[in-house]
Amino acid sequence: MSHRSQAKRFSYYFFNTLGLCIPNFIFRLLLQKKISKLNTSDQAYIQNRVNYYNKLSVVDNRGRFDNSVAAFKKTKGTTYFFDMRNVIKYFSRHLKFSMIPGDVTRIPEVPTFVKSRPITHDNENAVLLKLNKIRHFNFIKDEISYTDKKDQVAWRGVGYQPHRLVVIKQFYEHKMCNIGQTKPYQGNPWEKGYMSIEEQLQYKFLLCIEGNDVATNLKWVMSSNSLCLMSKPKFETWFMEGSLEAGVHYVELKDDYSDLIEKMEYYLADEQEALTIIKNANKYVDQFKDEKREQLISLLVAQKYFKQSRQL
Questions:
Q1: Is the pLDDT of residue 139 over 70?
Q2: Which of 8, 207, 212, 301 is deepest in the core (most CB within 10 A)?
Q3: What is the pTM of this model?
C-alpha cells in the first residue's frame, strides 16, 4: 500500500472515529441547511442521480425494516458502518430502514440500502449509497501519457471466480498481456507477482474484470491515461456502472474476453479513438469529485427512502 493510501485510510478512520463523539441532534439541525444549498443550476443533474440510485415508488414495508437510526450499530465492516452513519445521522432517530453490507448481487425483498446491485429493470428495492468508499472510490493522477505507455494489457487480482479464471487461463502466457492472479488458489499455476497501481499505469490497456460484484479497479482505471477494457457490467454501485457506454467510456469485450487481442490491436492502430475514450472516461469520473455535492446527493437519496416508505 502506498504512503498516500495509508495516509488516506488513517485520515478516514481517525476523523470518523472522532465524529462518533458528536451528538446526532447537531447533524439533524444541519440537514435542511445542507439541502437548501442545492444549486439551481445543478438541480436537474442532482435529481437525476438521486432517482438513479433510489427508484422507489411509495411503499409501506416499515414493519419489515430491521434497523433504525437510533439503534444502528456496527455491522459487517467498519467502513460500511461509518459510511452509512454519515448519512443517517442527519435524520430523526425514530426512522427505520434496512441495510445489507458487503457485495450484494441479488435484489432484496424490501427496500434496502446497499453498496451494489444487479443492473436490471426490477432493482427498485436495492437503493444505492456510497458505501465502503475508502476502497472503491480511489481516483488517481496519472503522469504518464497514453503514447508513452507499453503496448500491452495488465491485470492483477484474486482469481478464484470462474469468470476471472477464464480470462487468466487464456492470456496468462500471451506476449501482449501481463495478466495473473495475486494469490494461489487450489494449486492452479496462474499466479503472478503483485503489481502496484503505479506499475499498472505503465500499460496502455487495463482490464476491469468484475469480482463478486463490480470491478474494484474500475474507478481508478477510468481516472487514468490508460484505456479501460471490460465486458458489459452486470452490477453497479454509486459509480453508476449501468450508465457507462461502450465505445464512449470504455472498450467492451465479449463475456469470455476472447476478443481481447483483437480489440487491443484495433486501438493500437487508432490512437486517436483510444484517446477520445480515455478523455470521456476522465470526464465521467470528474462528476464524483465534488465531495459536498456527493454528500448532498447521499442525503437526498436517504430522504427519498424515508419519504417513499411513508416515514416523512
A1: yes
A2: 207
A3: 0.92
